[in-house]
From TrEMBL:
It holds the Pfam family Penicillinase_R. It comes from the Bacteria. Belongs to the BlaI transcriptional regulatory family. The lineage of its organism: Bacteria, Pseudomonadati, Bacteroidota, Sphingobacteriia, Sphingobacteriales. This is Transcriptional regulator. GO terms for biological process: negative regulation of DNA-templated transcription. GO terms for molecular function: DNA binding. The keyword Membrane does not apply. Keywords: DNA-binding, Transcription, Transcription regulation.
């Protein structure tokens, strides 16, 4: 299975978020971050990261006693894949329904709305 086709699970996404923000981390560092927001056993985190390595989601540097992990897949590519899958599977192919649902479920900040307007203007100007 190529890494481009691997869809991370929810737990794997939590680990990837940590690796994307830290750039690299040991299992202990990832576990400590996860433990701040949820109940997670160290061995569960270790097993998940081993599975992620086998799936090609992360790289592992085993040159020292403490293995250091880095994300093998980019945040941008992962977001694109997941959003594309969500639009197809949940919103029946309608990107506008996804956007309306996202904006209707929480209040966007002025900065977020400005970014959305700028992006929409950019899309309009390309046509």
């Amino acid at each position: 299975m190529s890494k481009e086709n691997v869809k991370p699970t929810e737990s794997e996404m939590e680990i990837l978020q940590i690796l994307w923000s830290k750039r690299e981390a040991s299992v202990r560092e990832v576990h400590e971050e996860l433990a701040k927001s949820k109940e997670a056993g160290y061995t569960t985190t270790l097993k998940l990261m081993q599975i992620m390595y086998e799936k090609g989601l992360v790289n592992r540097d085993a040159s020292s006693k403490t293995h250091i992990y880095t994300a093998r897949i980019s945040r941008d590519q992962t977001e694109k894949q997941l959003v594309s899958k969500m639009i197809s599977n949940i919103f029946n192919g309608s990107a506008s329904r996804l956007v309306m649902q996202a904006l209707g479920n929480r209040t966007a900040s002025k900065q977020e709305l400005d970014e959305i307007r700028a992006y929409l203007n950019e899309l309009e100007n390309k046509k």
